[in-house]
Design brief:
Structural class: alpha+beta
Radius of gyration: 14 Å
Number of strands: 6
Strand content: 25-35%
Shape: globular
Largest sheet: 6 strands, antiparallel
Distance between the termini: 43 Å
CATH class: Alpha Beta
Strand order of the largest sheet: 1-2-3-4-6-5
């Protein structure tokens, strides 16, 4: 049985996440687990997620899930806007809750770029660097 769709195209921030993520070389979007997932071809970002809070699953519908570098993780974990996403957190992912504070879209672009650079093929990263 497929996952139910857990987003709407007019969800806060989704258009911005799409604009940023799909501008990266080789990036595409598909729906997985009922949420928009951005891949190149491996997943580097997801819109929306969930976390466990006091033992209960809490949906974070307006959030960005990204893979973070281990050296960046401790600083990001100190920021209240970030959360440990269910299922993906143990694999190096964090979530940024768009409802926790005013969203800095330059920061979001940097987080997406950093996640992409950990996942994408070297030729795609070279292509991205050549665009700069």
């Amino acid at each position: 049985m497929p996952h139910p769709i857990m987003f709407s195209d007019d969800d806060f921030g989704l258009a911005d996440v799409r604009r940023i993520a799909l501008a990266l070389p080789g990036a595409s979007e598909k729906v997985s687990w009922g949420r928009p997932v951005f891949s190149a071809p491996k997943m580097f970002a997801m819109y929306g997620g969930s976390c466990k809070s006091t033992g209960e699953m809490v949906t974070m519908p307006h959030a960005l899930l990204i893979k973070v570098e281990e050296s960046e993780r401790p600083a990001l974990e100190q920021d209240d806007r970030f959360f440990f996403p269910a299922y993906m957190g143990p694999f190096g992912w964090l979530g940024l809750d768009f409802t926790a504070a005013k969203v800095d879209w330059d920061e979001v672009a940097e987080l997406i770029d950093a996640s992409y650079r950990q996942i994408a093929a070297k030729r795609l990263i070279r292509e991205l660097d050549a665009q700069s």
